[in-house]
Design goal:
elongated; 71% helix
Length: 168
């Protein structure tokens, strides 16, 4: 499967699950508590793991292409970017049309004297989504990258013998 197909499929899926999670929280008025946005990290993490692992499995079946750290990271970032755009567009629509008082209700405890509107909060949501995407993609690639603990990989590693000059 091509990396664009994996990224689009999982990106749209993550975006839809984020929207459904937000709407579920809104049924109980928990969407007004910024703490519950931590659920988004779990949703995005599971989705990015699925996207990268699907892409990696597709590369294991193709002997001409090799799964690299950069390719896996790219799949994670593109997937997260797509889901961030989808959720951000929903958030703009929700905070400006569906519940116009949402931003004021949410920021009642964080009154800093500045006028904060729906556009500012939506931009912050977008930036948080991108930051979450990059951090989770980097973290997941540490788990999913191929190990260098092979004969080929040992050529690029300094062994104890070479470092100390003592041969056993």
């Amino acid at each position: 499967m091509k990396k664009q197909a994996v990224s689009v499929k999982y990106g749209v899926g993550i975006g839809v699950v984020l929207i459904l999670g937000f709407l579920l929280l809104s049924l109980f008025d928990l969407h007004l508590k910024p703490f519950f946005s931590a659920i988004n990290i779990v949703i995005v993490g599971i989705g990015l793991y699925g996207a990268i692992s699907t892409y990696k499995k597709g590369h294991k079946n193709d002997t001409l292409k090799k799964f690299t750290y950069q390719k896996g990271f790219r799949v994670g970032v593109v997937t997260g970017f797509i889901s961030t755009i989808i959720f951000s567009v929903f958030f703009v629509i929700y905070s400006s049309n569906i519940e116009p008082d949402f931003v004021n209700k949410m920021l009642v405890d964080f009154n800093s004297g500045y006028e904060v509107g729906a556009a500012t909060v939506s931009f912050i949501v977008f930036l948080m989504g991108l930051a979450t995407t990059v951090v989770l993609s980097l973290a997941l690639m540490q788990i999913m990258k191929d190990s260098w603990n092979t004969q080929q990989g040992k050529r690029y590693t300094i062994s104890d013998q070479e470092r100390t000059g003592i041969k056993s």
